[in-house]
Amino acid sequence: MTSHQPVPLLDLRPQYAALKDEIRIALDRVIESQHFILGPEVEGLEREIAAYSSCRFGVGVSSGTDALLIALMAMGIRLGDEVITSPFTFFATAGSVARLGARPVFVDIEPSTFNIDPALIERAVTPKTRAIIPVHLFGQTADMDPLMQIAERHDLIVIEDAAQAIGAEYRGRRAGSIGHMGTFSFFPSKNLGGFGDGGMVTTNSSEIADRLRVLRNHGASPKYYHRLMGGNFRLDALQAAVLRVKLFHLDRWTEGRQHNAAAYRRLFTSANLVETGDCAGVLGRDFPVALPYEAASRRHIYNQFVIRATSRDDLVAHLKARGIGHEIYYPVSLHQQECFADLGYPAGAFPESERAAAETVALPIYPELTPSMQEAVVAAIAEFYGAR
Ligand SMILES: *Cc1c(COP(=O)(O)O)cnc(C)c1O
Q: What is the pLDDT of residues 143-177, one digit of tens each?
């Protein structure tokens, strides 16, 4: 069990090897057609992602970042508006708000799920608040029912940042189908990743879908008559063709990720590194590691398997020395980012987000991971914490 096998955080090559022929055929179809921007492949993907996410409409865009940006643009978010979101997320969630001149207003996270804490949202609402962007971090949805109730009470738009959560469920509802819009990313390391950048906005509103389609093409409708101030946020057909092939396999990969998460739980438990009872994903005094918490009635799709670890930075140095893939998502809470200094949040403003930034590390979870690779990961961690 103390094999010193190097394990990558993510290796996309075995996935490609298994799909190579299918993908090449799909790419050839696009190349033969010489139809590279939007068109039938993109429309096909839009229908398929919308159906997969239980939404009426999907609008393909150039990235998950642009999906957020265009979703906010479609609702007319602008200078002077406030948008409530989590400080513990990828930069793009808040960056897209700020790029429109609006103000990101952060609300701290639940320590168990790392997602925005609905109990703290209402006190952040002001007359300028226009929208909430809950992030379904690491593949598990935020607590959407109380959040939607608050949004309704204050007439706020809800945009789900589902970049890490395609196929995740909250009480039987798919990520991206609960708010007014859902935004997805097809960045290669996401559960459904393309051969480059890509994204999608989902919605159940035909009016919003129309606006998104116009906005992604410079606001033109018809061509060369610019109704709105848009941009080039188009998805290309080669990406759509790859993603349509991969979507077919997504549920099997998700099962693989869930299977690997369960295997980690067994391995960490038998190595005596974690509490066996329900510790709700936070560190106690008696065990050095806390495993990801799965909230009730959710389908966690494990885009990342993120643990909390005592002496995290020393553990990370040890993992690096042992060749065990890992990443800190995210080392700096957004309210402490240099570019957001003008928002004026002091250190300590969001203690749970800051704690998560200091305690967490992601371990390899991709579907093709083998049992011996997972054993090597846990063995390296057990070695660091010593005999217990
Ligand atoms: C990846 C990601 C994005 C941005 O997606 P890109 O396709 O990389 O632009 C936005 N939000 C979250 C939470 C993400 O993980």
A: 999 999 999 999 999 999 999 999 999 999 999 99
Taking 80 as the threshold, does the pLDDT of residue 278 lie above it?
A: no
Q: Are residues 128 and 208 in the same domain?
A: yes
Q: Is the Cβ atom of 90 under 6 angstroms away from ligand 1?
A: yes
Say how many Å lie between the CA of residue 185 and the centre of ligand 1. Answer: 6
CATH number for the domain harbouring residue 346: 3.90.1150.10
21, 162: one domain: yes
**C-alpha distances out from residue 115 to 118, 129, 189, 324, Å:** 9, 20, 20, 27
> Phi and psi (nearest 5°) for 313?
-65, -35
Quote the CA–CA distance of 166 and 184 in Å, as a whole number: 7
Number of separate domains in the chain = 2
**C-alpha to C-alpha distance for 191 and 303, rounded to whole angstroms:** 6
Ligand 1 atom closest to the CA of 89, numbered from 1: 13
Measured in Å, residue 197 CA sits from the centre of ligand 1 at 10
Query: Atom 3 (ligand 1): residue with closest C-alpha?
Result: 64
Q: Rounded to an integer, what distance in angstroms lies between the CA atom of residue 121 and that of residue 151? A: 10
Regarding whether 147 and 227 lie in a shared domain, the answer is yes
| 164 CA closest ligand 1 atom index | 15
CB atoms within 10 A of CB 276: 10
| pTM of the predicted model as reported, rounded to 2 decimal places | 0.97
Q: Is residue 1 in some structural domain?
A: no
Q: Decide whether any atom of ligand 1 lies within 6 Å of the 15 Cβ.
A: no
CB 237 less than 6 A from any atom of ligand 1? no
Task: Read off the pLDDT of residues 251-270 as tens digits, 9 standing for 90 and up.
Answer: 999 999 999 999 999 999 99
Whether 155 is covered by a domain: the verdict is yes
Q: Is 199's C-beta closer than 6 angstroms to any atom of ligand 1?
A: yes
> How far, in Å, CA of 139 to CA of 164, rounded?
5
Domain match, 225 and 287 both: no
Q: What percent of the chain has pLDDT over 90?
A: 96
89 lines ligand 1 (CB under 6 A): yes
Report CA(92)–ligand 1 centroid distance (Å).
6
- Which of 225, 247, 269 is the endpoint of a domain? 247
- Domain of 146 in residue numbering reads as 13-247
Atom number in ligand 1 closest to CA 137 = 13
Which of 212, 247, 282 is the last residue in one of the domains? 247
Q: What is the CATH number of the domain that holds 162?
A: 3.40.640.10
